[in-house]
Specification:
With 164 residues, the protein is an alpha/beta fold. Helix content is 37%, strand content 18%. The protein contains five helices and five strands, in the order αββααβαββα. It has a five-stranded mixed beta sheet. α1 runs parallel beside α5. The chain starts with 10 loop residues before the first helix and ends in a 7-residue tail after the last helix.
Length: 164
Amino acid sequence: MEPPIIDLQSDHYFMGEALRQAARAYEAEEVPVGAVIVREGRIIARAFNQVELLKDATAHAEMLAITQAEELIGDWRLNDCTIYITKEPCPMCAGALVHARLARVVFGVRDPKGGAAGSAVNLLQFPTLNHKCDITPSVREAECRTILQNFFLEQRDKPKTPEA
């Protein structure tokens, strides 16, 4: 096997790739959350929120990245993978991360109201579930927070259009 392209401890680098995906979401007027999944030092999936684009409440960056990674490796088990997400996963995504057996979850900014990786609840390490993910919070936190804050400030400043 060839050595990994990027050092396996490059959380800063991989979160930068997730931030690139978040920027794509921002440009598409989606909540700017991005995710990448890494296996053996290589990115195997990249995704950003596409709830509005796809008209699908489950089209969060994590969910789309999981599906891509599973298709690429030909298995639903991602137990040798790490996911990098710009925002702490919600309960739906945290549940999917556990069920897909991701080894590690790295995220940027905490979500005190709805985060399911320790802020509001910790589903990634829930005692009765059959799998627990290692968690690394607050990687490139300021950048992850800024893109979200800028997006929501811009959304609030947009003129409201009357509904027909």
